[in-house]
Amino acid sequence: MEIEAVKLWAAMGAIAIGTIAPAIAIGWIGSRASDAIGRNPEAAPKIQTAMILAIAFAEAIAIYVLVIALSIKFV
């Protein structure tokens, strides 16, 4: 197999696997935050702030995977 093809498959695999976990995490965080707000509506601002921060950290993982995939492909 040609080295470029291996790089392409590695980048594709990194993106495919590396975006599944953050997507699941963001869905789980949103679900749990909705449950918490439903149980205690007065705490909604605190819960929403923590939820947005957690979603940003989960999304950062996907950005790191994108950087790794691009470095695999172009280096």
UniProtKB/TrEMBL annotation:
<keyword id="KW-1003">Cell membrane</keyword>
<keyword id="KW-1133">Transmembrane helix</keyword>
<comment type="function">
    <text>Key component of the F(0) channel; it plays a direct role in translocation across the membrane. A homomeric c-ring of between 10-14 subunits forms the central stalk rotor element with the F(1) delta and epsilon subunits.</text>
</comment>
<comment type="function">
    <text>F(1)F(0) ATP synthase produces ATP from ADP in the presence of a proton or sodium gradient. F-type ATPases consist of two structural domains, F(1) containing the extramembraneous catalytic core and F(0) containing the membrane proton channel, linked together by a central stalk and a peripheral stalk. During catalysis, ATP synthesis in the catalytic domain of F(1) is coupled via a rotary mechanism of the central stalk subunits to proton translocation.</text>
</comment>
<dbReference type="GO" id="GO:0046933">
    <property type="term" value="F:proton-transporting ATP synthase activity, rotational mechanism"/>
</dbReference>
<dbReference type="InterPro" id="IPR035921">
    <property type="entry name" value="F/V-ATP_Csub_sf"/>
</dbReference>
<feature type="domain" description="V-ATPase proteolipid subunit C-like">
    <location>
        <begin position="11"/>
        <end position="70"/>
    </location>
</feature>
<keyword id="KW-0066">ATP synthesis</keyword>
<keyword id="KW-0472">Membrane</keyword>
<keyword id="KW-0813">Transport</keyword>
<feature type="site" description="Reversibly protonated during proton transport">
    <location>
        <position position="59"/>
    </location>
</feature>
<protein>
    <recommendedName>
        <fullName>ATP synthase subunit c</fullName>
    </recommendedName>
</protein>
<dbReference type="GO" id="GO:0005886">
    <property type="term" value="C:plasma membrane"/>
</dbReference>
<keyword id="KW-0138">CF(0)</keyword>
<dbReference type="InterPro" id="IPR000454">
    <property type="entry name" value="ATP_synth_F0_csu"/>
</dbReference>
<keyword id="KW-0406">Ion transport</keyword>
<dbReference type="InterPro" id="IPR002379">
    <property type="entry name" value="ATPase_proteolipid_c-like_dom"/>
</dbReference>
<keyword id="KW-0812">Transmembrane</keyword>
<comment type="similarity">
    <text>Belongs to the ATPase C chain family.</text>
</comment>
<dbReference type="InterPro" id="IPR020537">
    <property type="entry name" value="ATP_synth_F0_csu_DDCD_BS"/>
</dbReference>
<feature type="transmembrane region" description="Helical">
    <location>
        <begin position="6"/>
        <end position="29"/>
    </location>
</feature>
<dbReference type="GO" id="GO:0045259">
    <property type="term" value="C:proton-transporting ATP synthase complex"/>
</dbReference>
<keyword id="KW-0446">Lipid-binding</keyword>
<dbReference type="GO" id="GO:0008289">
    <property type="term" value="F:lipid binding"/>
</dbReference>
<dbReference type="InterPro" id="IPR038662">
    <property type="entry name" value="ATP_synth_F0_csu_sf"/>
</dbReference>
<dbReference type="Pfam" id="PF00137">
    <property type="entry name" value="ATP-synt_C"/>
</dbReference>
<dbReference type="GO" id="GO:0033177">
    <property type="term" value="C:proton-transporting two-sector ATPase complex, proton-transporting domain"/>
</dbReference>
<keyword id="KW-0375">Hydrogen ion transport</keyword>
<feature type="transmembrane region" description="Helical">
    <location>
        <begin position="50"/>
        <end position="72"/>
    </location>
</feature>
